[in-house]
Write a structure and sequence with these properties.
The chain is mostly helical. It is built from nine helices and no strands.
Length: 254
C-alpha cells in the first residue's frame, strides 16, 4: 500500500470512529430518556454519566472528531441497551455490573489517551478494578436513596418507612433526617430509619454480592483495557492530526 493510500485509510478510520462514537452517544441519550419515562432515576443517572464522559474530549478540544474509540462506548452502551429492552432480574443485575465496569473503563481510556498519565500493566488492571468498586459504591448509595424516597426495591426487598413527620415536612426536615441516618445525629429522633432485622440482613447480603460481582467484572474490564485498548487499539491514531501531535508534544516535554 502506498503512503497516500495509508494516509487515506487513516483519515477514513478517524472519520468512521467519530461517526460511530456519536451514534452511540445518541443511543445512550435515548436510553436516558426511556429510563426517565419509567421513573428509573438511578439508571437515568448512570446513562447521563456515560454520555457526559463520552463528550468530555470533543468539548475540551472544541472538535467533534475528538472522540474515544467507538469500541469503548459500545461496551458502555450495550449493558444499558440490554437493561432497557430486557427486564428479567438476571439481565438487569448483569447489565448493572457491566455498566459500572464500563464507566471505569471509559475513565481509564480517557486518562490513557488524553493525559500524560502512564500506568504499568498491573496498575492499569488494578486501577480499573478499584474504579469499578468506587463506582459501585456510589451506585449503591443512589440505589439506597431510591429505595427510601421512591419506594423501589434495588437493595431492600421491602421499602423502609420514612418517619411521618419527615415525610410531611419540608426540605429542612429531610436534610436533618438524612443527617441522622448517615452521620448518626438525633435531630429527628433516636431511630431515624427503622428497618426490620430480616430486611436489613437481606439488603446487606444483596449489597455484598453486588460488590463481589463488581470486583469480578472490574477485573475483566481491566484485562480488556490492558490487552486491547492499550496494546492493540491505538486510540491516538483515531484523533485529528493536530490533536494527536499536541498530545505527543505534551508527553515528550514531561
Amino acid at each position: 500500500m502506498s503512503q497516500s493510500e495509508q494516509l487515506g485509510s487513516l483519515l477514513e478510520d478517524r472519520r468512521l470512529n467519530a461517526v460511530l462514537a456519536w451514534i452511540l452517544v445518541a443511543f445512550v441519550a435515548l436510553v436516558a430518556v426511556e429510563s426517565a419515562l419509567d421513573a428509573d432515576w438511578v439508571w437515568v443517572g448512570v446513562t447521563l454519566v456515560v454520555a457526559v464522559l463520552a463528550v468530555v474530549p470533543p468539548v475540551a478540544y472544541s472538535n467533534p472528531r475528538v472522540m474515544l474509540p467507538w469500541e469503548v462506548l459500545a461496551l458502555a452502551f450495550l449493558p444499558e441497551l440490554a437493561r432497557a429492552l430486557l427486564s428479567t432480574p438476571f439481565i438487569v443485575d448483569l447489565a448493572t455490573y457491566f455498566s459500572v465496569a464500563a464507566l471505569a473503563l471509559v475513565v481509564a481510556v480517557e486518562l490513557d489517551v488524553f493525559t500524560t498519565v502512564r500506568m504499568t500493566e498491573w496498575f492499569a488492571v488494578l486501577f480499573v478494578v478499584l474504579s469499578t468498586l468506587a463506582t459501585a459504591g456510589v451506585l449503591a448509595v443512589g440505589q439506597w436513596l431510591s429505595d427510601v424516597f421512591f419506594r423501589t426495591d434495588f437493595l431492600y426487598p421491602e421499602p423502609p418507612e420514612i418517619p411521618a413527620d419527615v415525610a410531611d415536612g419540608g426540605a429542612v426536615d429531610t436534610l436533618l433526617w438524612l443527617s441522622d441516618v448517615f452521620v448518626g445525629t438525633t435531630f429527628t429522633g433516636p431511630t431515624a430509619l427503622y428497618v426490620p432485622p430480616s430486611v436489613e440482613e437481606a439488603a446487606l447480603n444483596t449489597l455484598m454480592w453486588d460488590f463481589v460481582a463488581a470486583t469480578l467484572v472490574g477485573l475483566l474490564a481491566g484485562v480488556v483495557f490492558e490487552r486491547y485498548f492499550r496494546r492493540r487499539a491505538d486510540a491516538r491514531l483515531r484523533l485529528p492530526e493536530g490533536v494527536e501531535e499536541s498530545l505527543d508534544i505534551a508527553e515528550g516535554s514531561e
